[in-house]
Amino acid sequence: MQTKILLVYTGGTIGMAKDYGDQSLKPFNFDNLLKRIPELSLLDCSFDYSSFETPIDSSDMKPEYWVEIAHTIRDNYEAYDGFVVLHGTDTMAYTASALSFMIDNLEKPVIFTGSQLPIGDLRTDAKENLITSIQLASLRKDHQPLIKEVCIYFEYKLLRANRATKINAENFDAFESPNYPVIGVSGVHLEVKEDLTLKLPITGPLTINEKYSTDVGVLKIFPGMNRSFIESVINAPSIKAFIIEAFGTGNIFTDQWFIDLLKEKVAQGIHLIINTQCAGGMVEIGRYATSDALLEMRAISSYDLTMEAAITKAIYLLGQDLTHEEFRTAYEANLKGELRKHHYIE
After folding, report:
1. What fold does the segment set 216-331 form as a domain?
2. Domain map of the chain by residue range?
3. How far apart are CA 111 and CA 192, in angstroms?
4. Residue 13 is a catalytic residue
5. What is the mean pLDDT of each run of 10 residues along the chain (346 residues)?
């Protein structure tokens, strides 16, 4: 039986076509998709598409749009075998990570993709990304979807969504998964590494948890930071979780005023989360003396989360009405394949 795939267009370059009269980019008419990409007719699946009423640039993506995408998947879940979400690249890793936390009991693929060039450009990467994403979403084994998680497909690589980060604004190879292996490769053969795919227990029908809170602050530290700037940021009202992008394995400068300020915020009940500025590797609070103070104040470790996953996980968990200890336990737990507490050895 032929699989059915739903394309969900949110906006972004992949949905644009160049007007060669004035060289501007204008929204693409998806009714003409087969005319633009005749190769789609060769796929062994059928597909429909759904679009945001007003497509948006991904720079304008917000949690309420995450909920809209999740609702589209939920409302069409029984009618389709997989979903391909077309999204701008700038915030794709944020949206895809957020959906990985919001959707429970997912038994079908949700593949995010986009492009660096519009679909009508001569050298566009949009065609390959779209065609292969649809193929990946339609893969089955023993009459069941081969992929049962939220992923990003870009430039021949399938990545776990909450492990992916955008690393390049110009190259076609725009996304990387620094702390977890690529779970699929498009080459001569379309290969999915089944042993690396997410396999979570299914406890009921698909559900969407749309509770969230954006009361999250982020501070990237650097040598010689201005004290008044740090104080103004950390003392911002209504912030409930604060993520520090620390050096290396979670190290911070140890000026006493800074340590005292962090202790004060922790005493007030703020969730103090430590991530690393490094693209790869992980947080190990207490490994060096410069993180001993964080260990003493029981700062929360991001372990090897990407920054996108660290932020969206905090936004998601803040919406769950958890105690401080419940938040800590959940944040440091591997909920949807987003982290490990030890170094990955491939």
Report:
1. Rossmann fold (3.40.50)
2. 3-208, 216-331
3. 13
4. yes
5. 92 75 64 74 89 91 98 98 96 98 98 88 87 96 96 97 95 93 95 97 97 98 97 95 97 96 97 96 92 95 98 98 97 98 64
- pLDDT score recorded for residue 344: 55
> Which pLDDT does position 24 carry in this prediction?
64
What's this model's pTM, rounded to 2 decimal places? 0.95
Q: How confident is the model at residue 337, as a pLDDT?
A: 98
**What's the CA dihedral at 56, 134, 102, 332 to 10 degrees?**
-110
Domain 3-208 belongs in CATH node 3.40.50.1170: yes
Distance (Å, rounded) from C-alpha 2 to C-alpha 44? 7
Catalytic residue among 3, 10, 13, 113, which?
13
Backbone angles phi, psi at 52, to 5 degrees: -55, 145
3-208 with 216-331: one CATH topology? yes
Residue 151 near residue 92, CB atoms below 8 Å? no
Ramachandran region, residue 273 (left: φ > 0; alpha: ψ -120 to 50; beta: rest)? beta
3-state per-residue secondary structure call for the chain: CCEEEEEEECCCHHHEEECCCCCCEEECCHHHHHHHCHHHHHCCEEEEEEECCCCCCHHHCCHHHHHHHHHHHHHCCCCCCEEEEECCCCCHHHHHHHHHHHEECCCCCEEEECCCCCCCCCCCCHHHHHHHHHHHHHCEECCEECCCCEEEEECCEEEEHHHCEECCCCCCCCEECCCCCCCEEECCCEEECHHHCCCCCCCCCCEECCCCCCCEEEEECCCCCCHHHHHHHHCCCCCCEEEEEEECCCECCCCHHHHHHHHHHHHCCCEEEEEECCCCCCCCCCCCHHHHHHHHCCCEECCCCCHHHHHHHHHHHHCCCCCHHHHHHHHCCCCCCCCCCCCCCC
Chain position carrying tokens 């909450």: 162
Q: Kindly give the interhelix angle for 92-102 and 307-318, rounded to the nearest 10 degrees.
A: 40
